[in-house]
Design a protein that fits this description.
Distance between the termini: 30 Å
Number of helices: 11
Strand content: 25-35%
Structural class: alpha+beta
Radius of gyration: 20 Å
Number of strands: 13
Bound molecules: adenosine-5'-diphosphate, magnesium ion
Length: about 325
C-alpha cells in the first residue's frame, strides 16, 4: 500500500494550528497545554458495518468520526484542541480518503481542532480517532458528580437518529442528517462547565447513558416522559407516543448532552444555552432511591417495550 503517499496527502491538508509545536511527520506530535489547564483525552473506534455503513458517502463517515469524538470532549465541558486519526483500509483508495478528509476536517476546522498524527495501515475498513482538549485544573462535568435534588436536563431533541435508522430510505432529509452528521454540543458543554454538576453525551440512548450517571453518582431519577424533546420530523414520522418514546429513550446516536444542575441554576442554564443557540429542556429530577422511573403525563410509570430495548439498545 502506498502508505507514505496517503500520509503526505493527509499532511498537505493539515494547516498548522494553535498550541501545536510539531504536527504530522515525526515520531510524535509535540503539543503545548496552556498554563492552568488539564488534558482531556478520549478515543473512539468506528468499524465498517458495525458503527457505520461503508456504502455511505466517505465525507459523512469522516464527519461522524470527528463528531462522536468531539461529543465526548463536550460531555466533560472541555475545549477541543487536537486529534489523531488511525486508519485501516483494505486498499490505498485516494478518492475515498479524500472524501473522508473533507468531512473529518470540515468539522475539525469548525472547532479549531488540529489533526496532529495518526497511523495508516492495510486491513478491514476502520477509523480510530483520539480527541484531545483541555479544561481548567480540577474542573470537569463528571458522571459521578450528580446530586440528589438536581434537575435533569437534555440538549436538543432526542430520537431523531434512531428514527432515521429505523426508517432507512424512507427517512426525510432532517432525520437522515441527524444520523449521518450529528452536532457535537461543544459550546453547550463549555457553557455548562460552571453551571452543571454532571454530564454525559448520548451515544447509546438516554435510558442507558443516564443509568451510567445515576450509578456513578449513587442516585436515582424521575423522568417525565411528556417533557422529552421531540423534533417536528420525529412527531410526524412516529405520531404514536410510545413508539416515539422508544426511539427517544433507547435509540443511540443522538450525541445530545444529558446533564444535571441545581434547581437554583434554572434561569442561568436556559440563558447560557440560549446564548450558544442550543435548546435546553428540563426532563426530570434526581432522587435518593436508585433507578430510573419513567413517569407518564397522566400519572403512573412506564417501561420501554422489551423488544424495542433489545433492538434500539444493542451495545455498539
Ligand atoms: P511511525 O512508523 O514512526 O509511527 P508513520 O509512518 O506511521 O510513522 O507515520 C508518519 C507520520 O505520519 C507520523 O507523524 C504519524 O503521526 C502521521 N500519520 C500517519 N498516518 C496518519 C493519519 N492517518 N492521519 C494523520 N497522521 C498520520
Ligand atoms: Mg505509525
Amino acid at each position: 500500500m502506498a502508505e507514505f503517499e496517503l500520509i503526505a496527502m493527509i499532511r498537505e491538508r493539515c494547516a498548522a494550528q494553535r498550541e501545536v509545536l510539531l504536527g504530522i511527520g515525526d515520531d510524535c506530535a509535540l503539543l503545548s497545554l496552556p498554563p492552568g489547564q488539564q488534558l482531556a483525552v478520549s478515543c473512539d473506534t468506528l468499524n465498517a458495518d458495525v458503527h457505520f455503513d461503508a456504502a455511505h458517502a466517505a465525507a459523512d463517515i469522516g464527519y461522524k468520526a470527528a463528531a462522536v469524538n468531539l461529543s465526548d470532549l463536550a460531555a466533560m465541558g472541555a475545549e477541543p484542541a487536537w486529534c489523531t486519526l488511525s486508519l485501516s483500509m483494505p486498499s490505498a483508495d485516494r478518492a475515498w480518503l479524500s472524501g473522508l478528509l473533507d468531512g473529518f476536517l470540515e468539522l475539525c476546522a469548525a472547532h479549531r481542532v488540529a489533526l496532529v498524527g495518526g497511523d495508516t495501515t492495510r486491513g478491514p475498513l476502520s477509523l480510530c480517532v483520539t480527541a484531545m482538549g483541555w479544561l481548567p485544573h480540577g474542573r470537569a462535568l463528571r458522571r459521578d458528580a450528580a446530586r440528589v435534588g438536581d434537575d435533569l436536563w437534555v440538549t436538543g431533541s432526542l430520537g431523531d437518529a434512531s428514527a432515521a435508522l429505523a426508517l432507512g430510505e424512507a427517512a426525510g432529509r432532517y432525520l437522515r442528517g441527524r444520523l449521518l452528521r450529528p452536532t457535537p454540543r461543544v459550546d453547550a458543554g463549555r457553557a455548562l462547565l460552571r453551571l452543571a454538576h454532571a454530564a454525559i453525551d448520548l451515544s447509546d440512548g438516554l435510558h442507558g447513558d443516564l443509568g451510567h450517571v445515576l450509578r456513578a453518582s449513587s442516585a436515582g431519577a424521575d423522568l417525565q416522559l411528556g417533557a422529552l424533546p421531540a423534533s417536528q420530523a420525529l412527531i410526524e414520522a412516529f405520531p404514536e407516543r410510545e413508539a416515539r418514546w422508544n426511539h427517544q429513550l433507547c435509540g443511540g446516536d443522538d450525541y445530545e448532552l444529558a446533564f444535571t444542575a441545581d434547581p437554583s441554576q434554572r434561569r442561568a442554564v436556559e440563558e447560557a444555552l440560549q446564548a450558544v443557540g442550543v435548546l435546553a429542556t428540563r426532563i426530570g429530577s434526581l432522587r435518593a432511591e436508585p433507578g430510573l422511573r419513567l413517569m407518564l403525563p397522566e400519572g403512573g410509570s412506564w417501561e420501554p417495550a422489551a423488544g424495542a430495548w433489545q433492538h434500539f439498545g444493542e451495545a455498539t
